[in-house]
Write a structure and sequence with these properties.
Elements (H helix, E strand, L loop, with lengths): L1 H6 L2 H22 L4 H40 L5 H32 L21 H7 L5 H7 L2 H18 L1 H26 L1 H15 L2 H6 L1 H27 L3 H7 L1 H10 L6 H10 L5 H14 L2 H17 L6 H17 L6 H12 L14 H26 L5 H5 L2 H12 L1
Helix pairs in contact: 2-9, 2-13, 3-7, 3-8, 3-9, 3-15, 4-11, 4-15, 4-16, 4-17, 4-19, 7-8, 9-13, 11-12, 11-16, 11-19, 13-19, 14-15, 14-19, 15-19, 16-17, 16-18, 16-19, 17-18
Length: about 425
């Protein structure tokens, strides 16, 4: 058994864990729907504990990894103006892909009409939180207390502090050089922790999938089948086709190699439903398997995990058209343009706000005069779609990292083109 495990790649073991969890969850849901033993000792017991430990372990690494790797990357950049250039490229690309995503979603929803003839009633209610103003968003970028920002996991504030800290290290001279050695060693230790955690991932993924699919109310999904399938289809199409076209067009790199090497990250994102929790895995893949220099990846990946919301934008586009059709409201071309503009700008303006997807959707609905209460109709199927959205988002984070790295001459194409066997051999050598 031990020899077989050695022959299986990590990706294969994670996939086995995911599908095994789905199968177990379906089995328990089908044959033991009201079992107190299953609910108390498995669903809310073993599966819940293992799954939450797995997610907590991922989240445990996010703050130190982002801060340390970003400091290391920033202090190695001799030209401070390069940071502004990197930020401009990354933010522009993230906004462009978001605009494409929601435009694509609206077009598909208008064409398919998922809400036409649907009569839904829901006992659920939705009270949208207040989105912050643009001025407050800008103010909140700068932490009053960086340790408080780290404790609360405020990613944008952590990024800003790490950038300032790294710039100061680069400018201070010899003290900065000595401190740089410490951070580089610290970064190596954190990356080793990521590798250790990734080898435990199949068990965590199994537990998360088993719990989710044993609790999911599939009756709700069936009643919203057309909406659910349309969002899912557009998410997959955007993640595969749109990103591949952008990557090929702007870098000339192979989309097939890119998507193949992103499998582990996509499964992690799908299992955790959190771009932030997936940062350690995304960053490790982007730098070690795709060849992006750490000075680029340590900036673009955390930034993307915070402001890149292509998956959420797709949900908003389809949901807006769906709710309009259910409530028999005709939207004009100007209304659709307003939806695209609002969602694109809101992806940055509401970054880091809890429940950001639903807040953004409430803002979009308000802009075109649709009832916010319509969100309650789709909440029941949002959990499974959220998992797919996260997989799309982390794929976009990696794609933008590659484009920015290529444009800055900070991409090792040999690593990008390395086969799985070459990567495995190099990983073994690194461990030795």
């Amino acid at each position: 058994m031990r020899d077989n495990n050695k022959k299986l790649s990590l990706t294969t073991r994670i996939v086995i864990g995911m599908f095994s969890g789905v199968a177990v969850g379906f089995f328990l849901k089908l044959f033991f729907p009201d079992s107190l033993f299953v609910e108390g000792y498995l669903t809310k017991g073993l599966f819940h504990v293992v799954g939450q430990i797995f997610i907590s372990s991922l989240q445990m690494l996010v703050v130190p990894l982002v801060f340390v790797s970003l400091v290391v990357g920033t202090c190695s950049i001799s030209d401070p103006s390069k940071l502004g250039r990197l930020g401009g490229k990354a933010v522009s690309l993230y906004m462009v892909t978001t605009a494409i995503a929601i435009s694509f979603a609206i077009f598909a929803a208008v064409l398919i009409q998922p809400g036409a003839g649907v009569e839904l009633q829901s006992d659920a209610t939705f009270e949208p939180s207040q989105a912050p103003s643009l001025a407050q968003v800008i103010i909140d970028l700068f932490p009053k207390n960086p340790f408080s920002a780290m404790a609360s996991g405020n990613m944008l504030q952590i990024i800003v502090f790490a950038l300032l800290f790294g710039i100061a290290m680069a400018l201070v001279g010899k003290p900065g050089d000595r401190l740089r050695g410490f951070f580089e060693d610290f970064n190596e230790v954190i990356m080793k922790l990521v590798i250790i955690l990734m080898n435990l991932a199949p068990y965590g993924v199994f537990a998360l999938m088993a719990k989710l699919f044993s609790e999911t109310q599939f009756e709700t999904i069936f009643s919203l089948g057309k909406y659910f399938l349309l969002v899912f289809f557009v998410l997959i199409l955007h993640g595969v086709v749109t990103y591949s076209l952008i990557l090929k067009g702007l870098t000339g790199l192979s989309p097939w190699i890119f998507l193949k090497k992103m499998r582990e990250v996509q499964i992690f994102g799908f299992s955790t439903s959190s771009s932030n929790a997936t940062i350690p895995v995304t960053l490790e893949t982007v730098t070690k398997r795709l060849g992006v220099n750490n000075s680029i990846g340590s900036f673009t990946v955390p930034l993307g995990a915070t402001i890149n919301m292509d998956g959420t934008a797709i949900m908003q586009g389809v949901a807006t058209v769906f709710i309009a059709q259910v409530y028999l409201v005709d939207l004009s071309i100007a209304d659709y343009a307003m939806v695209v503009l609002t969602a694109t700008l809101a992806s940055i303006g509401t970054a880091g706000v809890p429940g950001v997807g639903l807040i953004m959707l409430a803002m979009v609905l308000g802009q075109v005069g649709l009832p916010v209460e319509g969100i309650a109709l789709i909440i029941g199927v949002d959990r499974l779609l959220d998992m797919t959205r996260t997989s799309v988002n982390v794929t976009g984070d990696a794609m933008v990292s590659l484009v920015v790295a290529k444009s800055e001459g900070e991409l090792d194409e040999k690593i990008f083109n390395d086969s799985e066997a070459d990567l495995k051999e190099r990983d073994v050598a690194d461990q030795l």
